[in-house]
Specification:
By secondary structure, this protein is mostly helical. It contains three helices and no strands. Helix 1 crosses helix 3. The longest helix is centred in the middle third of the chain and has 19 residues. The chain is elongated, with a radius of gyration of 11 Å. The termini are far apart.
């Protein structure tokens, strides 16, 4: 089930980080948004919140590098 959490956190963080296009967000902004999405997804699904935040934060920070949230 951890694989599904990672996928959900990645998709969620990418989607939410993409909403900040009008304000020119930094990697830190996207990482914080991603960490929030990942932690929330983990909490709702009954998984490890710290792990969810770490996965979401990494996804949020790296989404522009992979051109997913531009």
């Amino acid at each position: 089930m951890s694989k599904y959490l990672a996928i959900f956190a990645l998709v969620g963080a990418t989607g939410v980080a993409g909403c900040t296009q009008g304000i020119n967000p930094t990697d830190t902004d996207r990482a914080l948004i991603g960490a929030g999405v990942g932690a929330t997804a983990a909490s709702v699904s009954g998984r490890n919140v710290v792990r969810g935040a770490a996965i979401g934060g990494a996804a949020g920070a790296l989404c522009d590098d992979f051109r997913l949230c531009q």
